[in-house]
Design a protein that fits this description.
Layout: H1 4-15, E1 20-24, E2 31-38, E3 42-49, H2 56-72, E4 81-85, E5 90-94, E6 99-100, H3 108-122, H4 139-157, H5 164-183, E7 198-201, E8 210-213, E9 216-219, E10 226-229, H6 230-239, H7 247-260, H8 267-286, H9 292-302, H10 306-324
Antiparallel strand pairs: 1-2, 2-3, 3-5, 4-5, 6-8, 7-10, 8-9
Length: about 325
């Protein structure tokens, strides 16, 4: 990763002068997020990607291309792309003012506002944007992703003494839950994925990536964005653990999309099919810190002690599982 001094010098070469007030912002999980002030551009956000991870340049490229496309479409309430330095692994975007909401602050009106953003995207041209990260065109693809995540966690749990708690959680709880969910999936469900209407999607969409300024919402963090099935986006929005929403809010979001977005005839059925699969997927994602590469990435982002983070994430996984059963 780049030091702040190295980043500062690289940015200066592009800006033509040195940005002032360079500081690390909180919240970047897959990168280091910096704020700076520039005499010509004003406040900007610098995303210094975790370049040691193989997908770092893909995330940089994906976010840059997506926001560049939204700029052409004149989509408001998202950062503007200013420039990128692929060699040094960072991009610069306009600063979006606001703060993240607490769970208790999320209202029906904010849910509708988030849904309106997705509706607006569904009415726009996809252009030449790539498929979103983690999207699948078949039910088998979604199931295969969760199987892969489960297998990776099982491999990690067998490594040593420190992973006994994870191993017990997998054996006694998560793996039986997964098998029970799979048993309810029928071959007839696969046909519902043949009619997918592909739309622009932030992909990693939830209130962990939404900012409030006064009464207006803005949307940030598009490292996984692209073309996606909005049924998948809907289940992810319902289940994202960082700033969880209520069942009632999940219903409002889903119904608003069904009433206003440009969707295919099997959207609602796919949400029902994917929801239990996504429940297990998100528990696996919560446990990603047990996997070394994912753990290294998060240590770079927030410097949290690894052992404390693992205990916290396992406790969160247990809580999320108790809500599923």
């Amino acid at each position: 990763m780049l030091s702040l001094t190295h980043t500062d010098k690289a940015i200066e070469r592009f800006f033509g002068s040195q940005p002032s007030g360079l500081k690390v912002l909180s919240g970047g999980r897959n990168n280091r997020v910096l704020q700076a002030s520039h005499p010509r551009l004003g406040n900007v956000v610098i995303k210094d990607y975790f370049r040691e991870i193989p997908d770092s340049l893909e995330r940089l490229r994906r976010e840059w291309n997506y926001l560049s496309h939204l700029k052409k479409l004149q989509i408001p309430d998202v950062p503007l792309p200013l420039f990128k330095d692929t060699k040094n692994g960072f991009s610069v975007f306009s600063y979006v003012k606001g703060r993240k909401l607490l769970c208790s602050e999320i209202t029906d009106a904010y849910i509708v506002c988030a849904a309106q953003h997705i509706v607006k995207l569904s009415q726009m041209s996809n252009g030449r944007i790539d498929m979103a990260k983690g999207t699948h065109s078949t039910l088998a693809g979604h199931i295969g992703e969760v199987r892969l995540r489960m297998n990776r966690l099982r491999e990690v749990s067998e490594r040593g003494f420190r992973d006994i708690a994870l191993r017990e959680f997998l054996t006694n709880y998560l793996e039986p839950l997964w098998e029970a969910k799979l048993a309810k999936v029928g071959k007839k469900d696969e046909v519902k994925f043949e009619t997918i209407k592909w739309n622009l999607s932030p992909s990693d969409f939830g209130f962990h990536n939404i900012l409030l300024d006064k009464k207006n919402l803005s949307f940030i963090d598009f490292e996984y964005a692209g073309i996606d099935d909005l049924a998948k986006l809907t289940t992810d929005f319902m289940l994202a653990p960082s700033v969880p929403i209520t069942i009632d809010h999940s219903y409002i979001f889903r119904e608003y999309l069904m009433s206003h977005a440009d969707l295919d005839c099997n959207f609602s059925e796919r949400v029902d099919i994917l929801y239990p699969i996504a429940q297990v997927k998100w528990i696996c994602i919560i446990l990603n810190d047990f996997i070394d590469l994912e753990s290294d990435r998060k240590r770079f982002a927030d410097h949290t002690k690894n052992s404390d983070r693992l205990e916290k994430q396992l406790a969160l996984a247990r809580l999320r599982l108790s809500q599923v059963i």
